[in-house]
Amino acid sequence: MLKAIRYKSLGYTSFFNPDTGFFARVPDTGKKDPFWSPHGPELMDISITNWCDKGCSFCYKSSTKCGEHMALDDYKRVIDQAAEMGTFQVALGGGNPNQHPNFIEILEYTATKGVVPNYTTNGRGMSDEILNATSKYCGAVAVSAYPPYDETAATIKKLADHGIKTNIHFILDAGSIDTAIDWLNQPPEYLAGINAIIFLNYKPSGRTVFEEKLLRNSARLDEFFGLATSPQRKLKVGFDACCVSGVFARTNANTSMVDACDAGRFSMYVSEDLKVYPCSFQSGLVEGDQLDSETTLLDIWTKSRNMGMFRSYFSSDRCGECSHRSVCMNGCPLFDELVVCGNR
User: Fold this and answer.
1) pTM for this structure?
2) Contact status, residue 67 vs residue 95, Cβ threshold 8 Å
3) Is-contact 30 115, C-beta < 8 A?
4) pLDDT digits 0-9 by tens, 22-33
5) N or C: which end of the chain has fewer CB within 10 A?
6) Cβ-proximal residues to 126 (8 Å cutoff; 6+ apart), any chain
């Protein structure tokens, strides 16, 4: 059922279908698209654990088997406040979120508050109980794709067997772009049942930073973005906000179908220790705002200097007279290296 929330004083209406994931923000006649939502974020990215047993070198949270879980009561407090702010959905992450000891209760509680839970998994710990709860409560699951992709393929099959809407998260860098192009030209058979493949621009953050892996170092950017946005593509494709500079500058894609970064404008991140940031990738760079008994998420959203700095960046003229500035909003506030438009 389509939900609609009218913000008369702000001049727009938000529409969200919890069954399909459809979302639209529609300005009133004669009004511009809103720059941010003072009432609270529409999406929250929540790290419910920093526990993971894979130890990937590129993990920006350096998650390990010693990682801590968010307390269940703390999670419920976050979701209670999210629901009060009109948040439509949450993206649960980590670590590997489905290996949180209270994961099923987390999904159930989120749904009872009218908020749609989604999560990203590396594929481990996907028990029948987890799969059944996912099918019952979740909007979608994203599977992180890592070579040699055997585990990825097995996880996709498990989710498909339970009728769960499945996306693939593919980290795009100067090396993996070759695989991405191969998949766009001829998708592997195990991708046949997925909803979409979402390309995530490699961030220079994690246990080990590889400057040579930065996507902008690839000579195949035009080829990739051309294939990924072609009407004849064989896979449904999406991008994280850190790829949009390439979409805007290297393709003829309809800009109304692509959003600039929402961090601090329509989305926020909460870590497992209740630190709050505009973006999850900022968590290793600065001290976040602490959610506690005296400070609410809405307080942080509306009054935090950190949130304000992000909004100031997006509204600035950093990129000068670039024709894409109004839709790209200057690219990433954290990593200038992620800008792949070729204009700076």
Assistant:
1) 0.94
2) yes
3) no
4) 999 999 999 999
5) N
6) 98, 155, 158, 159
